[in-house]
Each structure stands twice: as C-alpha cells, then as structure tokens.
Specification:
The structure holds 2 protein chains of 2 kinds. Chain A is an alpha+beta fold. Chain A has 3 domains: 85 residues, Anti-sigma factor, zinc-finger domain (Arc Repressor Mutant, subunit A, Orthogonal Bundle), CATH 1.10.10.1320; 37 residues; 109 residues. Chain A has 7 helices and 8 strands, in the order αααααααββββββββ. In chain A, helix 1 packs across helix 6. The longest helix of chain A is centred in the N-terminal third of the chain and has 20 residues. The two termini of chain A are 34 Å apart. Chain B has 2 domains: 116 residues, Rna Polymerase Sigma Factor, Chain: A (Orthogonal Bundle), CATH 1.10.1740.10; 79 residues, Arc Repressor Mutant, subunit A (Orthogonal Bundle). In chain B, 65% of the residues lie in helices and 0% in strands. Chain B is built from 10 helices and no strands. Classes of the chains: A alpha+beta, B mainly alpha. Chains A and B meet through helix 2, helix 4 and helix 5 of A and helix 3, helix 4, helix 5, helix 7 and helix 8 of B. Chain B: GO terms for molecular function: DNA binding; sigma factor activity.
Amino acid sequence: MTDHDDTRDTRDTRDAQREYDAHALSGAYAVDALDDLERARFEEHLRQCPDCRAEVDSLRETAAALSTDAVEPPAGLRADVLAGIEAIRPLPPLTEHGRNQPAPVERPRRPWLLGTGPMLVAAALVLVALVSTAWLRPWAGDDEPGEMTATERVLAADDADRIVQRFPDGSRATVVFSRSEGRAVLLTEDMALAPDGSDYQLWLQAPQGSPVSAGLMPDQADATVLLEGDASRATWVGITVEPDGGSAQPTTDPIAAFDLPT
Amino acid sequence: MDPGVHASAGAPHVGAPAGAGPDLAALLQRSARGDRAAFAALYDATAARVHGLVLRVVRDPTQAEEVTQEVFLEIWRTASRFDPERGSAVSWLLTIGHRKAVDRVRSAEAASRRESTYHHRNQTVAHDTTADAAQASLEARRVRTALTQLTEVQREAIELAYFGGYTHTEVAALLDLPVGTAKTRIRDGLIRLRDTIGVGR
C-alpha cells in the first residue's frame, strides 16, 4: 500500500465518522447553534439525507413554538420596511433545476463492516475508495452530494482559512481556502442569482499572469462550489458577471474579491 | 404537511394566536408575486412575534430594530422560497428572524453581552395587550409545561442555544458538558418537546 492509499484510507474513515455524526447535528442546526463551517458541512449532508431534512423542519417548528414573546416593534419600523421593499425584487421560485436536486448518488456505506477487525475494515475501505474512484467518478463529479471528498477535504483541512464577503442585501459569500489541499471552495448564502443571460464566473489569480477561470457558479442562492483548478499559489479569488456560459477572461469588474492569506 | 391541517391543528405554535388570524401562507405567496398590500398585512400580523424573538436574542433595542427590519426585507425577497409542505409560515418567518439575530450577536462579538449573565428569562418584556393575549398566554403555558418534561440540562442547552444565540460548543462550555454532548442534549430535548407539544408533523 502506498502512502497515497494510506492517506485516502484515513480520510475515508474520517468521512464515515463525520457522516455518522452529522445526524446528531440536526437539533443544533435547527436552532442555529452551529458555527459557519459546521453549518456548511451539515447543509451538504442535508442535501442527501431526507430524514434529516424532515427532522430539521419539525425541530424548527418546535423551536418556533418556544418563541412566545410578542413585542411590537417601534411604530416607525413599518414605514421603513414598506419603503425598503420598493428597492428589492422578490426572488423567483426555485424551479426543478435549482431545487435540492438529483436523487443524490449515495456512496455505498458499509455498516456491516463496522464490527469486524480494523485491518479488514481498513482494507475494505481502501477497496471501496478505489471502486468509488473507478466507478463513480465518471458520472459523479467531486462536487456532487454523494461524492464530496475534495470539497470536504478543503472544509476540514487544518489550514483552512475562511474569507467572508457580505453584500448590501444581506447575502454572504465565503471562500474556504486550504493551501495544503491546493483547492478553494465558495459557499454562498441567499445570494441573488445572476441576471438573465449571464452567469457568475469564478476566477483564481496567481502571483503572475491573468486570472484563470475556476468555473461557473450554479444558479442557486445557496451553493457550495469547489473551484476548478489549482489554487495552491493563488493570491485572490474573484467573482464576475459574465455572459451565459462564461468568458475566457473577465469582462467586468469583480462583484466580489477574496484576498487569500499568503 | 397539509397546510389545512396546520390551520386547524396549528394553534400551539402558529403565531396568529387565536388561530383565526390571516392566512399567513397565502400572504407569503402573494408577497412573492410582488403584492405590497399582502406583505403589509403579513407584517401587521407577524411583526410583534418576529420582533419579540429578535429582541430576546439581540437584547439591544436599537440593534434589534435594525435586525427586525432586515428580517422583513429578507422575507420579502425570499417569500417564493417558503414551502408550505415543509412547515408553517410562522416557523419559516421565525427561522429567518432567528438566523439574522444570531448572525448579529455573533458578528458583533457582543463582549458586553457575554459578560452579562445568560439567565435573562426574567427580563421584563412588554407583551402585547391585544385580545390575543389570553390565548398567547395559554400557548406560553403549554410551552412552559412542555419544558418541564425536559431534563435540566436539555432545557438549559436549548435556551442557551435558541435564546442565547450560543453555538453548541459554547453551550457545552457554559454548562460544563463534555465537548460534543451539548448538540445531543439540544436534539434530544427538541425531539421530546416536539412530541410533547405535538408540532411539526
């Protein structure tokens, strides 16, 4: 077994452990008691776990029942709110395309192995990892819900740095960057979709040369996107609005730029 | 979950305390289409409930007012994302309100807040004095009763997380629990509450 396989084995065990723990976070998630990173991970888990989604919904309902205090806000607030909405366009409904999407590819878990000897488990996990790699990857990219490893490795990396940008409308985008993994992940929350006929495009800037495209963002207000390409030497990550399908080089000024720590 | 079922069974939590208030789900759906009058009606029906929660978490009245405003702008913006199959309208509104309130206290780092004791349940809150008050207090009593079914640790963990805005890791530290167990207490406690109050099904 090579060093590479050892690494993969450890990661896979960790993934399985995290998967197991994830269910236990539903309550804390329902009352917003997770930190940003835990929340991002749990939301990834939610996409592939209908049981957890239903549980979170019911626990949010329960938490709302706890909140029985009714306090009238100051009278002037109503006018402020009604004036404020004049400048805000309601989001379109989620269409099937943007919804929680594809009956995700569940990576085969192996509960039947958990009681057996560690060596056997280790060997089997490597085997599963290799099989997954060989068989799942052609049709399940690294950033698909069932096959999260690259994204999760960045989120879980010991040297992961998080750079947050808040937008005036209250939405938020976070770049999680791990130099050791050489990759970056963008997490968006409530982000307005790109205007019709355009896409958000991601860029990585190396110390020299022009920005290199790191892919397009999906049409989702809440997205977790693994940036394409090697980010290990990147100095910043940018987001621009580009014509549908993206551009070879940025054609507009970035709407957001994230300086990466050196 | 059928919204009709909610309306009839929904009394314990569905904000319109008398159960006879406006159909909030319908107001949300009309708001999503840009109907300002519907949104104004939604505001009138729910602002006190939303602000009550925001104020309890944020505590500072000026900041709470800002957060409540943000919350309603967000409700307007995202009304189309409300899915009645997944829960009641009030729960959805309060989820947004809670999230924004927690974001505010965390980003503010709220040093002064953390120095103050977290036992703030006795803080005086100006309850609304409408005819709904009796029903609201029935509802509150029902919730209080349900809370007595929890263990002390479950109750404290939930209150610290939900009303205190602390993360489960911070809750564990505040309650001297081993790291990682607060989240379990929060979940166990919420599940027991859910089954006692009978919501969310």
